[in-house]
């Protein structure tokens, strides 16, 4: 339950005037050492969100609850994570919410897993597959750090062997050759269930589309999301010099009992 005050065990975000962010879990007796001085966790616990706190040398930091976007971008990772701009769209496109059972492969560093676990809540569940032990261990630590591991079952397994679950509501593949696993995906999904995949190149998308045409999936869509931020200055509003452009193509489909023309 969210409270108005920072409590021990909360993950907090300190934002400086220089836009530097520090995100950590509050622990009584601990200290945060920054390039602008030291802040004792005991001096943060009990303060209201939105307050300004200072280091021992007087540098101010704004105390905030981190957003899901910041939590995902702040995780430890060994590989590229799914970007928040895609994650948000995946969630609404595949109808992910409380009570939903979703299968994911591969886990990677756990960025998408975190968002899915947060969205399905205690009444839903995420089943995530990863073939690399070290990568799965990292994802587990990232989920445990946020207290979301209870919503997730981790499988250390090559999905070429199939999925253990059946009648899942949704299934998302972030793997190199998703077209190889369409039969296994269909067997794991309920009729009408949501299928999604993320691919970096057009030739991979073409291969998946060709396989989907021969599969028991229908209503196929291919989309790409571009994100352009603007400088928030009223007197000279203009786009930032850099933008998050192509990060991947999204392919969506629905699991069907019989093939339906797309």
Explain what this protein looks like in three dimensions.
The protein folds into 2 domains: 56 residues, Vcp-like ATPase, Chain A, domain 2 (Roll), CATH 3.10.330.20; 187 residues, Vaccinia Virus protein VP39 (Rossmann fold). The strands form 4 sheets. It has a 7-stranded mixed β-sheet with strand order 9-8-7-10-11-15-12, with helices on both faces. It has a 4-stranded antiparallel β-sheet with strand order 2-1-6-5, with no helix packed on it. The chain has a two-stranded antiparallel ribbon with strand order 3-4. The protein contains 6 helices and 15 strands. The N and C termini lie far apart (44 Å). With 262 residues, the chain is of the alpha/beta class. Helices cover 22% and strands 30% of the residues. Strand 13 and strand 14 form a beta hairpin. The relative contact order is 0.11.
Architecture of the largest domain, according to CATH?
Answer: 3-Layer(aba) Sandwich
- Inertia-based shape: globular
Q: What portion of residues is helical?
A: 10-25%
Radius of gyration: 21 Å
**Number of E strands:** 15
Given as residue ranges, the uncertain stretches (5+ residues, pLDDT < 50) are none
Strand content: 25-35%
User: In the CATH hierarchy, what is the class of the largest domain?
Assistant: Alpha Beta
Number of domains: 2
Q: Major beta sheet, specifics?
A: 7 strands, mixed
Q: Strand pairing plus helix content: what structural class?
A: alpha/beta
> Averaging pLDDT over every residue, what do you get?
94
Q: Whole-Å distance between the termini?
A: 44 Å
Strand order, largest beta sheet:
9-8-7-10-11-15-12
């Amino acid at each position: 339950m969210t409270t108005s005050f920072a409590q021990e065990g909360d993950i907090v975000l300190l934002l400086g005037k220089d836009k530097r962010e520090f995100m950590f879990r509050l622990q009584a007796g601990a200290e945060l050492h920054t390039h602008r001085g030291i802040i004792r966790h005991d001096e943060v616990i009990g303060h209201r969100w939105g307050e300004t706190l200072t280091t021992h040398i007087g540098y101010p930091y704004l105390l905030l609850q981190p957003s899901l976007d910041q939590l995902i971008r702040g995780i430890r990772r060994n590989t590229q994570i799914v970007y928040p701009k895609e994650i948000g769209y995946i969630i609404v496109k595949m109808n992910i919410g409380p009570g939903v059972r979703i299968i994911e492969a591969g886990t990677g560093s756990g960025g998408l897993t975190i968002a899915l676990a947060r969205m399905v809540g205690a009444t839903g569940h995420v089943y995530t597959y990863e073939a690399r032990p070290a990568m799965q261990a990292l994802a587990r630590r990232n989920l445990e750090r946020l207290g979301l591991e209870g919503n997730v079952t981790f499988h250390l397994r090559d999905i070429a062997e199939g999925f253990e679950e059946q009648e899942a509501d949704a299934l998302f593949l972030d793997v190199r050759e998703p077209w190889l696993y369409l039969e296994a995906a269909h067997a794991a999904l309920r009729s009408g269930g949501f299928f999604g995949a993320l691919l970096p190149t057009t030739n991979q998308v073409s291969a998946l589309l060709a396989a989907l045409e021969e599969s028991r999936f229908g209503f196929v869509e291919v989309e790409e999301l571009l994100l352009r931020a603007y400088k928030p200055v009223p007197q000279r509003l203009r786009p930032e010099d850099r933008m998050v452009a192509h990060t991947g193509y999204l392919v969506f489909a629905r699991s069907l009992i019989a093939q339906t023309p797309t």
